[in-house]
Design goal:
single chain, 1 helix, mainly alpha
């Protein structure tokens, strides 16, 4: 095969890979939006107030 053709194919595959990885990262970032969760702490009955 021609060297210029191989270089062209390699460049096109690289650009396709970059575009695919950017799209994948964008979708993962949108999916991982953190939502605050309110946690209530239970009161421990074995805690004695020292006086």
């Amino acid at each position: 095969m021609d060297t210029h053709l191989l270089v062209g194919v390699a460049v096109m595959l690289g650009l396709i890979g970059i575009a695919a990885s950017r799209e994948l990262l964008r979708s993962l970032r949108a999916q991982s939006q953190l939502v605050p969760v309110r946690v209530s702490r239970p009161v421990r009955s074995d805690k004695v107030d020292p006086k």
